[in-house]
Amino acid sequence: MTSPNTLPIPRLRPETATHEHGWRVESRHPTSEGVVLYVRCADCGSRRVDLQAHPHTPPVGVSAELGGAGH
Ligand SMILES: [Zn+2]
Question: How many CB atoms lie within 10 A of CB 40?
Fold first, then answer.
């Protein structure tokens, strides 16, 4: 009799995937399509590029989150 509970199931849940990033703007660059924001999470060091098309709309992430803490 086999039990599925005995199978080793790899759990790939890094801490960076569970916490809510606290993005902080490091630099901003006005472009013809809006303001490109380079943001970094102060907690885990992940980086992301956001694009804020209009001053009154929230920025939208245009790049994947880039882990900066090292793997
Ligand atoms: Zn983070």
Answer: 19
